[in-house]
Amino acid sequence: MQDVISSNEERMKKTVASLKEGFATLRTGRASASLFDRIRVDAYGEKSPLNQMANISIPEARLIVIQPWDKGLITEIEKAIRSSELSLNPSNDGKVIRVSIPPLTEERRKELVKVAKNQAEQSRVAVRNIRRDGNDELKKLLKDSKITEDNETKGADELQKLTDNYINQINKVLEEKEKEIMEV
């Protein structure tokens, strides 16, 4: 029974971690190196993550400076940023790429909050699905006479407590991200 609970708790932890990673790539009004985590650059015949090809620094609150280790890739990096869903306009001086982060419009902020809420809801559904899977495993163990009815009930109660805990964590993460997005 404990195996079922611990394996399902691990899956729930991963769901929350995945949500946090997804939120890191959501653009807010502030500069953040994590914005570029999902950007892949065509280099040497394959797509590589931008953060493995350049140094990304934030000298000011609304400015990101990208310094490629190979200056020959500067135009490819610029092209990858332009074609990303971030809607950013990079400029390069031959040595570094500067990306100015424009302040978000009220309309765009509201769109981003909707995206964040949608991602959070998907995570809540995933956590509930994990609970359902765990309950199914417990019922199977009961059917196979590997655990007693009392243990199955205790296991289901523990899974419910875990589910409530992780859904609360998801709600807190969403609340923080909403606050960050709506900040002017």
Summarize this, please?
With about 180 residues, the protein is of the alpha+beta class. Helices cover about 55% and strands about 15% of the residues.
Main sheet strand line-up: 3-4-6-5
Q: Main β-sheet, in a few words?
A: 4 strands, antiparallel
Give the DSSP E fraction (strand runs of 2 or more residues): 5-15%
Q: What characteristic shape results from the CA principal axes?
A: elongated
Tally of contiguous helical segments: 4
Task: Briefly note the structural class of the backbone.
Answer: alpha+beta
Task: Describe the model.
By secondary structure, this protein is an alpha+beta fold. The protein has helices at residues 2-24, 74-83, 106-143, 149-182, and strands at residues 40-43, 46-49, 54-60, 63-68, 91-92, 97-100. The strands form two sheets. The chain has a four-stranded antiparallel sheet, covered by helices on one side. Strands 1-2 form a two-stranded antiparallel sheet. It starts with a helix and ends with a helix. The model has no long low-confidence stretch (mean pLDDT 90).
Write out key terms for the chains shown.
4 helices; 6 strands; two-stranded antiparallel ribbon; alpha+beta; 184 residues; single chain
Which helices and strands occur, and which strands form pairs?
Layout: H1 2-24, E1 40-43, E2 46-49, E3 54-60, E4 63-68, H2 74-83, E5 91-92, E6 97-100, H3 106-143, H4 149-182
Antiparallel strand pairs: 1-2, 3-4, 4-6, 5-6
